[in-house]
Amino acid sequence: MRLADRITQCRTPFIVQNTKNGTITHLSGAATFADEILACPIRYVLCDDLTRLCAALAYSKGTRTLACADLLHVPAERVWIEWCEAPWLAELTRYGFKTDEQSIAGGRRGALIQSSVTGRRGLVRTFWANGDADLDVFSSSMEAYFDFDTPEGEAPAAPDASDRPTISVFDHGVGDADILSRCFRFRYEHTWAEYYAHTALSPEQRAAVARHALGTIAIEIPVMLIFFLLLATRPGLPRRPLMLERLNRARSRSGKAPLLAHMEVFAPLMPEYPPSNGTGLGFERRPRRLHHVRGHLVRRGSQLFWRVPHLRGSCRAGVVRTRTVTWTMDGPVRDSNHPPVSRARPSHEFVT
After folding, report:
1. Does 112 score more than 70 pLDDT?
2. Count of CB atoms within 10 A of residue 217's CB?
């Protein structure tokens, strides 16, 4: 079952009890968002090939997402996105992230994005499931808010008047291309913020808990950004609405809740790369040693060029696909209140 369906049918509240004084606290969990996801007008389900492509684009060391920040926008004021966990974790492992090998066998990931009318500012909450029971469906204790038009040297404005502490995430490896440090801030959801504010944790324990909570949301943001970027290309990503009328009629007769309508989205087809035989100069050069070349994303005006990760050298195990993919964009999304942004400075601090 899709993760969105699991959440909308989830009825188990997230309740914790203090073992010392017996105090019971009701925290925000997956069931809290059942009605919001049910009312969501657009729900995307990424197929495995698109999940791998988005992850490769997101985590490649050569990717520079911030250079495309003016092209990014959320396609509706409320959007749901989900994907299988296995291909996502496989790409994470490929790019050097440590993953839990036990979770690669199954599970699904998802995110609910609430944005402004322009799609340039909003709030993100992430979800995941690894089992069949209500207790196996989880929601991140942290949320992320963003503003793609954040001026250089400033922080994105919070969508409410809350003064909750925020966390800034940055990657020194990408330098000026670090879109997370410039456009995103992370914070505990208000029920979780109140809960942790009344716990007797040392500063070291609070930092460890915050980093763990941050790991349930921050690592998924780049995949979402790449997906929104690919959606903005011409003619967009191949997609197919899933027809559930007959299945839902059968479920209704069995007393089961109907499944939600959603859109399956696929990776764009990429042409094959013709292998080269010789140099064309009347003699053959000794083949280069087989090695891997990392992918990187380059923007030139309204076009994006993705140099896909590929093997270079002598390869007899099959045909190598094209090494360069070009996407054409309709143009930047302009907000009358904020000019487009094209440059950034790396963050220099971890704000808690």
Report:
1. yes
2. 22
Q: Where in the chain are the domains?
A: 3-265
For residue 313, pLDDT beyond 90:
no
Of all residues in the chain, the percent with pLDDT exceeding 70 is 72
Which residues are paired to 291 by β-bridges? 312
Pairing of strands 42-46, 24-27: unpaired
CB 83 within 8 A of CB 341: no
Residue 118: name the closest of 65, 68, 77 by CA: 77
Q: Are 140 and 167 in contact, with CB atoms under 8 Å apart?
A: no
pLDDT over 50 at 23, yes or no: yes
What DSSP element (H or E) covers 187?
Answer: strand 184-188
Report the alpha-carbon distance of residue 84 to residue 82 in Å, rounded: 7
Burial class (CB in 10 A: 0-12, 13-18, 19+), 147: buried
Higher per-residue pLDDT: 309 or 84 = 84
pTM of the model: 0.79
Is it the case that residue 347 has pLDDT exceeding 50? no
Query: Which alpha helices (DSSP H) does the chain contain, by range?
Result: 3-8, 34-38, 48-59, 85-94, 179-183, 190-197, 203-214, 221-231, 245-253
**Strand boundaries in 238-315, DSSP class E:** 239-241, 263-265, 291-293, 296-300, 303-307, 310-312
More confident site: 330 or 285: 330
The answer to whether 52 touches 266, Cβ cutoff 8 Å, is no
DSSP per-residue letters across 92-114: HHHTT----GGGGGS-EEEEEEE
Rounded Cα distance, 291 and 298, in Å: 22
- Identify whether the C-beta of residue 159 lies closer than 8 Å to the C-beta of residue 187: no
Upstream peptide bond of 274 is cis (omega within 30 degrees of 0): no
Q: Mean pLDDT, the chain, as a whole number?
A: 80
Helix (H, G, I), strand (E, B) or coil at 210: helix
Rg (alpha carbons) of the chain, rounded to whole number: 22
- Residues 145 and 251: their CA atoms lie apart, in Å, by 37
Characterize the bridge pairing of strands 42-46 and 78-84: parallel
